[in-house]
Specification:
The strands form 2 sheets. Strands 1, 2, 3, 4, 5 and 6 form a 6-stranded mixed sheet that branches. With about 400 residues, this protein is of the alpha/beta class. The protein is globular and about 55 Å long. About 45% of the residues lie in helices and about 15% in strands. It has 2 domains: about 140 residues, Leucine Dehydrogenase, chain A, domain 1 (Rossmann fold); about 160 residues, Rossmann fold. The protein has 15 helices and 12 strands. This is Glutamate dehydrogenase.
């Protein structure tokens, strides 16, 4: 894997990244990267991805998503992301996490506030905060440290809220002819995000017909017993070890007939090869529970075929919204209430503007987020008069219709 900084800088634009920090510890072998994309609104917020395949470019792309996600959610955070290149199950994860925390400590928490991501848990956040010496260093900590662990399912809860409301609104607009309670759902990835998405959708009455993880896929057109599967996985550990089910290859998830497809695994899993499979399987709606799960080419293929794609930085903001509540000392109940409120507001806003402007949900959401970040960037430079002039010229539909959610909680 190349660690060339130029791979990242080739993607630099007017928004960032502000800093790209490469770190290495010869004692442990830890290799890592921190990308602080944009801090105009506040310190960069983003998880630490701990996988053997993570790359600097992937970390940058994830950091950029966090910039838009936090701005769209009206949170006082910018965007950032950390990456540790290794298998957390094969290395001394505590030593590696301590080493990474020590290396990036100068940036924490004023420029970067960490959280969990793929390959990291609340216990890793406990190690990170202890090594930095500041409980504000990260969110997603154990409850004993005043944290609101992501293991409570905050991200998955937000995905379920977004899925339910999206289907109801698209039915109302006549964009999709599908009773939400008759919709079938397939979920790719059954870790924290995928499993809790399934749990909350199941509680709402949705029929989950297929799930997959890295080991395999299970499918039942009549619907899966999600509570039972979640209990069995606590012992089995992976789908391939579930003895009562027929196990298919993990790739089958793209072929099963479903109305709603929810990618909740790694990046770029919906691509030019898998997108046509979803279309053939009758998918009407893609809800991006994972970060950057769909390539630009694949999204174009889906949209041209009439498939709706609701982007990650709208759908999976539950995690960072919950992190914000933890950051300001709130409770678990406050976190779930705020997630429900903010994601509902954004889904309604974006889909309403889509109907009025014939733009994609991603384009609408990005324009809203960019407007907020641009305003903060101008004000940070002290260009108050320039900012006023800029927004006097930019009195667009977005500015009139987008509420400032920074200090908003819920009704």
């Amino acid at each position: 894997m190349s660690l060339s900084v130029y791979d990242v800088w080739s993607l630099a634009d007017e928004w960032g990244p502000e800093k790209v920090v490469f770190v290495y510890d010869p004692d442990t072998g830890m290799r890592g990267v921190l990308v602080i994309d944009n801090t105009a609104i506040g310190p960069g917020k983003g998880g630490i991805r701990f996988t053997p395949t993570v790359t600097p470019v992937e970390v940058f792309r994830l950091a950029r998503v966090m910039t838009w996600k936090c701005a769209l959610a009206g949170l006082p955070f910018g965007g950032a992301k950390g990456g540790i290149m290794g298998d957390p199950n094969k290395v001394d994860r505590v030593a590696w996490m301590k080493s990474f925390a020590k290396a990036i400590k100068p940036y924490v928490p004023l420029q970067y506030v960490a959280a969990t991501d793929m390959g990291t848990t609340e216990l890793d956040m406990a190690v990170f905060a202890h090594e930095v010496g500041d409980v504000r260093a990260c969110t997603g900590k154990p409850s004993e440290m005043g944290g609101i662990p992501h293991e409570l399912g905050t991200t998955g809860y937000g995905v379920a809220v977004a899925t339910d409301l999206t289907l109801k609104m698209l039915n109302k607009f006549g964009s999709i002819s599908l009773d939400p309670r008759e919709a079938t759902v397939a979920i790719q990835g059954f870790g924290n995000v995928g499993s809790f998405t399934a749990k909350f959708l199941d509680e709402l009455g949705y029929k989950i017909v297929a799930i997959s993880d890295i080991s395999g896929c299970i499918y039942n057109p009549e619907g899966l017993d999600i509570p039972l599967i979640m209990r069995e996985l606590q012992t089995a550990g992976s789908i391939e070890k579930l003895s009562r089910y027929e196990i298919y290859p993990k790739e089958k998830i793209f072929d099963v007939k479903s109305d709603v497809f929810i990618p909740a695994a790694s990046s770029d899993t919906i691509n030019s090869e898998t997108a046509p499979k979803l279309i053939k399987a009758g998918t009407k709606l893609v809800i991006e529970a994972a970060n950057i799960p769909t390539t630009a080419e694949a999204e174009k293929i889906l949209i041209q075929s009439g498939v709706w794609v609701i982007p990650d930085f709208i759908v999976n903001a539950g995690g960072v919204i919950g992190s914000y509540v933890e950051y300001k000392g709130g409770t678990e109940k406050e976190a779930f209430d705020l997630i429900n409120y903010k994601i509902s507001v954004n889904v309604k806003l974006v889909l309403t503007l889509v109907q009025q402007n014939s733009l994609t949900p991603r384009k609408i959401a990005q324009e809203i987020a960019k407007t907020r970040v641009k305003r903060a960037m101008l004000l940070r430079r002290g260009a108050i008069d320039v900012a006023r002039e800029y927004f006097a010229r930019q009195k667009s539909l977005y500015e009139f219709m987008v509420p400032d959610l920074r200090n908003t909680t819920h009704p």
